[in-house]
Amino acid sequence: MTQISKLTECFPDSVLLVSRLLLALIFVHEGTTLATHFSGTVKAMAVVGVGAPLVVGVIALQLGAGLAIALGVLARIGAVLLGLFCLMTATMFHMDFSNQNELLHFEKDLAIAGGMFVLAVMGSGRLSLDRFIALPFLHKRGPASAQAASETN
Question: What is the pTM of this model?
Answer without folding.
Answer: 0.80
